[in-house]
Amino acid sequence: MAMERVAVAVTSGLLLAVLLATFAPSPALAIDCGRNKSHNAFIGSRHWDDKLLFMDHPKKESKWLRTVSADVATGNLRGIINYIEVLDQKTNGNGGCAYLTSGGAGTNNVAFHIKSQRSHGLDFIIRAWGRPY
């Protein structure tokens, strides 16, 4: 009887782990427009000896009944990116969305397309940390 309980617990735990791995969003897609108040994203993992390789603060004013967008690209950095954070400065639910278009963690560049919600501007801080060459 005890072995059956252990088998059921292990099977249930494995099933839960598979479901979470399948349906959990990847870090690059963690920005969920329309559901979260802040559309932040964190990609990769930061190490203790990482240096700030890139920082940008794209900001655009709103246009009535229109969306505004911006493209942010690092170009070739002199290092390998380990961690990227995209911080939406509009934390009231009116912020925009950032879409990873190229590069990312493990490369020497990253590019994002940022788009606002209709009739709202955008205000993000993008930082990339890594190990310089």
Structural commentary:
- Residues 1-30 form the signal peptide.
- Keywords: Signal.
- It holds the Pfam family MBF2.
- This is Salivary secreted peptide.
- The strands form two sheets. Strands 1, 2, 3, 5 and 8 form a five-stranded antiparallel beta sheet that branches. Strands 4-7-6 form a three-stranded antiparallel beta sheet, with no helix packed on it.
- Strand 6 (97-103) and strand 7 (110-115) form a beta hairpin.
- The chain has one helix at residues 2-23, and strands spanning 41-44, 51-56, 59-60, 69-73, 79-88, 97-103, 110-115, 122-132.
- 22% of the residues are buried.
- The chain has one domain.
- Residues 6-10 and 14-31 have low confidence and may be disordered.
- The chain has 133 residues and is α+β, with helices and mostly antiparallel strands.
- Helices cover 17% and strands 38% of the residues.
- The longest helix is centred in the first third of the chain and has 22 residues, at 2-23.
- The radius of gyration is 19 Å and the shape is globular.
Question: Topology, pairings included?
Answer:
Blueprint: H1 2-23, E1 41-44, E2 51-56, E3 59-60, E4 69-73, E5 79-88, E6 97-103, E7 110-115, E8 122-132
Antiparallel strand pairs: 1-5, 2-8, 3-8, 4-7, 5-8, 6-7
H/E element string? HEEEEEEEE
Our measurement of the CA-to-CA distance between the termini, rounded to an integer number of angstroms, reads 59 Å
Please give the share of residues in helix: 10-25%
Gross morphology is: globular
Number of domains: 1
Task: Output the number of helix runs.
Answer: 1
Which residue ranges are poorly predicted, with pLDDT under 50 across at least 5 consecutive positions? 6-10, 14-31
* Strand fraction: 35-45%
Count of strand segments: 8
Please compute the radius of gyration using only Cα atoms.
Answer: 19 Å
- Report the sheet with the most strands, covering strand number, pairing sense and barrel closure: 5 strands, antiparallel
Mean pLDDT: 82
Secondary-structure content class: alpha+beta
Protein name: Salivary secreted peptide
Keywords: Signal
Signal peptide: 1-30
Organism: Lygus lineolaris
